[in-house]
Structures are given as structure tokens and as C-alpha cells.
Amino acid sequence: MRIAIYYYKNKNEEISKMIEQEAIKRGFLLDDHYPDVVFSVGGDGTFLRAVHRYMDILDEVHFIGINNGTLGFFYDYTKEDIPMLMDMLKNNNFKVKTHRLLKADVKYQSEEETIYAVNEIRIENPFHTLIADVSIDNQLLETFRGNGLMVCSPLGSSGYNKSLGGALLDQDLDVMELKEIAAIQNNIYRALGSPFVFSSDKDISFSGTFNGAVVGYDHLSLDKHDVLLKVDIYCSDKTVKIIHGEDHSYINKVRKSFVL
Ligand code: NAP
Ligand code: MN
């Protein structure tokens, strides 16, 4: 088995060393390029970066989150669990949960780009009103005016989406959620004003001429000096596979992160 460790340099060095030693002890190979298992050490942002690092070989990679003390939605384990995890891997005895990524086809005047996201994909313009036709499977839902529009996955529903007032999505749902960002609501302009959850076979599209708007996805953004015309968002067939603890509970995670 080939193991990689993903973490911020200068942080979590000690945990990374520990993973390395325990892996070598069991005869695993360390391979940053084509790992079977990636240990992501840090917080949720680190996990997002780890997934994007291995985006091209996601089908073959399993992720394990080792949390560094802060809470993490993508994390079931702490450094005390490392020897146990290694034994689990050695004995091929672990539980995997598969989560779909979001995918977007982003159309500019002179080129097209395809992006994938774990948490969410959004289009935002903080300085001028963004005006966009929002269509679902080619049926117009609304002409939106406001700061932006966001679509999240169940995994991402506890991130930006939650700050925007979106609903948490149970992790077993195969859906995506659309949430408006600061919609203008007055006597002249109307916007839906509530989150909207869609089944995974839908195509959510934003179209217009988006002067100054930016397409953001997870911790990344597209930085093109071209006229943005359309963003089509889908549930992707690409998935991220996460190794979870026996006692993995989404409810418990939500309680610990937001309620207690
Ligand atoms: P960041 O500014 O460090 O992230 C903001 C916070 O969101 C951090 O506390 C991060 O946890 C947490 N987070 C990320 N994904 C989460 C998830 N699925 N569930 C619950 N919390 C989550 O930026 P970043 O580390 O590059 O992460 C990018 C993500 O941050 C985006 O995908 C977006 O979801 C989120 N974000 C949120 C807001 C907002 O709430 N207003 C604004 C921008 C971005 P860690 O500290 O453990 O990294
Ligand atoms: Mn972060």
C-alpha cells in the first residue's frame, strides 16, 4: 500500500512524522504521486486542498483525516488513532464513504473550463450587482440580482452555505443546494429568497454578462481576463472516498461544531 501525507509545512510536522514512522513500520511505501491512501493532517481547508491535489486520480485514492485539535467536518481521527488506523489499513478492514463532487462547465467568450468542487461552486460580484438568469434544466427559475449565487454539496452544506443561511444536508442525500447571496428584494425586484435543494440529475445554470464577477470553488477561484457568460453546475460522477471511523456520526459532528 502506498501512503501520502498532506499537511501545511511548518504545521503538524510532528503528526506527519508519526504517520511516516508507523507506515514504514508496517512495510507501506511513501508515495506522494500515486498514493492509495492520503492522510490529510490539519483542518477542513487542508482537506479541501488535499482532494484538489489528487483530483486527477481521485478514483484510486482514499482519504483519512487526522485532526490537529480544532474541529473538522472532514475529520474522524486524531493523532492517537494513527497506529490503529495503520493496522486497519494493513488488515484491509475499514469503512469507506463515497461523496460526489460538484462539477461546473464555465463558459467564457473565447474558452471553456471545467472545474470540480468538494464544498461549493459560486459566482460572486461584491462590488456591482450581479444579474443572472437562473435556470434549472433549461427552465427559467428567476432573474437574480444581488451579490452572487452558490451551489453546495451535502459535504459543503456546513461551510459557506451555512453562513449564508442555507440548510444543512444530511450526508447520505444525493442532492445539491442552491443558495442566493444577498439577493435584492424590493418593490421592483424579486428573488426566490430561500434555499432550493435539487436532485442530482439536475443542471443548474447561471447565465448573463457578468462584468467583474468571479467564479469561486472551494478555496480556489478562476482568474480569467475574459468575458464570463455561463456557468452550468451538476453533481459529478467523480467522487471523493473518505475512510471513516466505526462511530462516525454526522449528527454528532453538527452538534459538536454548532450546538455545544
Ligand atoms: P477558510 O477561510 O479557512 O474557511 C472558512 C471556514 O470554513 C474555516 O473555519 C474552515 O475550516 C471551514 N470549512 C471549510 N469547509 C467546511 C465544511 N465543509 N464544513 C464546515 N466548515 C468548513 O478557507 P479555506 O480553508 O480555504 O476553505 C474554503 C472553504 O471555506 C470554502 O469552500 C467555503 O465553504 C468556506 N468559506 C466560508 C465562508 C463563510 O462562512 N462566510 C467564506 C468563505 C469560504 P478550517 O478552519 O478547519 O479550515
Ligand atoms: Mn481554513
- Please count the helical segments: 5
Looking at this structure, what is the CATH superfamily of the largest domain? Probable inorganic polyphosphate/atp-NAD kinase, domain 2
N-to-C CA distance: 39 Å
CATH architecture of the largest domain: Sandwich
Calculate the mean pLDDT score and round it: 95
Low-confidence stretches: none
Sheet with the most strands, sense and barrel status: 15 strands, mixed
Number of domains: 2
Bulk shape: elongated
- Category from helices, strands and their pairing: alpha+beta
Q: Could you name the CATH topology of the largest domain?
A: Tumour Suppressor Smad4
Order of helices and strands: EHEEHEHEEEEEHEEEEEEH
| Cofactors, ions, other ligands | NADP nicotinamide-adenine-dinucleotide phosphate, manganese (II) ion
**Main CATH class of the largest domain:** Mainly Beta
Radius of gyration: 20 Å
